[in-house]
Design brief:
Four Helix Bundle (Hemerythrin (Met), subunit A); 5 helices
Length: 135
């Protein structure tokens, strides 16, 4: 399997992992006495760490297409050579961004998250440019 195909699966698998972590946050809230029907989808109704998990999960889903779209185009058109070299770097940046999001919201963590997100965007733009000019 190419790096691009592995990365597609990795981006989706990471979103699933974060979904399970979010389920754990919600189950912990229920175990702590929170009513089943009172959840705020923003995550503001749970602990600060639960809120960060909620936002990291949402962010991973919100940006899934930005990362996976160019990879799928590359795979579908036979141009994975354009995306393969940076595919795992982009996936690593996504996983690290989510992990930093969950761990902390201090100024340094926010700057690290922004840097990792910017790296993903720049890689996606590079892929789009390369795919648009692929022979």
């Amino acid at each position: 399997m190419s790096a691009s195909a592995t990365a597609v699966l990795g981006f989706v698998a990471w979103a699933i992992v974060l979904s399970f972590v979010l389920v754990g946050v919600r189950l912990a809230a229920i175990a702590g006495g929170k009513p089943l029907n009172s959840f705020d989808p923003t995550g503001r109704d749970v602990s600060p760490s639960g809120y960060r998990v909620t936002r990291a999960h949402g962010n991973a889903l919100e940006n899934l297409a930005l990362n996976v779209g160019p990879l799928l185009v590359a795979l579908a058109t036979g141009h994975a050579a354009v995306t393969d070299p940076l595919a795992m770097t982009a996936l690593g940046a996504r996983v690290l961004q989510s992990a930093v999001h969950i761990v902390s919201t201090n100024q340094l963590a926010v700057l690290v998250r922004a840097t990792l997100f910017s790296a993903q965007l720049l890689i996606a733009l590079y892929w789009i440019w390369g795919l648009a000019h692929a022979a």
